[in-house]
């Protein structure tokens, strides 16, 4: 096949995400994607060797937006504290990062469920792509390392603890999104109370000496 006259890759990813907002990944065919893009299946295969490769690229774009949101929110809170004369230490930075992840997930529930569960990471991806998947984890690890140096938390393995914090908080978030808690925590206020408690427990675990 000759090279298309225009770069359809961004449109393919955009339309694929739109389909994923309505259907599960396995329910979508390459023909469905092609129809949504106004293209042929052959054209889709020109840009992506298979559907899983396309899904991985969609996931990476969603993760990048999540990462940007988390970082921007942490910086925003740091600046706000600086203006008020407060001490935005590493422990508060950890909380701010976890809260930002929670807020992003509740603002983008379907995308969060796709990114954190339905769209799998490419386990055979090269190191550069893996960095894109786990940028927020690296950010969390670096923040934990600062907190350890400042004597604010105790961690023998900051990478492990960063992953555990994200996984545990996601478990609480997912429970709310899928209504696996009691109805009291399905409301906007209830879900914040529920997940704030998990964040408190995680911080308490980090600050407790083993």
Structural class: mainly alpha
Number of helical elements? 10
Q: Low-confidence parts lasting 5 or more residues at pLDDT below 50?
A: none
Strand content: under 5%
Tags for this entry?
210 residues; mainly alpha
Describe this entry's structure for a reader.
By secondary structure, this protein is mainly alpha-helical. The N and C termini lie far apart (61 Å). It has 10 helices and no strands.
Task: Report a brief summary of the structure.
With 210 residues, the chain is mainly α.
Secondary structure topology:
Elements: H1 9-20, H2 30-37, H3 41-47, H4 51-84, H5 90-107, H6 109-118, H7 127-133, H8 135-149, H9 158-177, H10 188-207
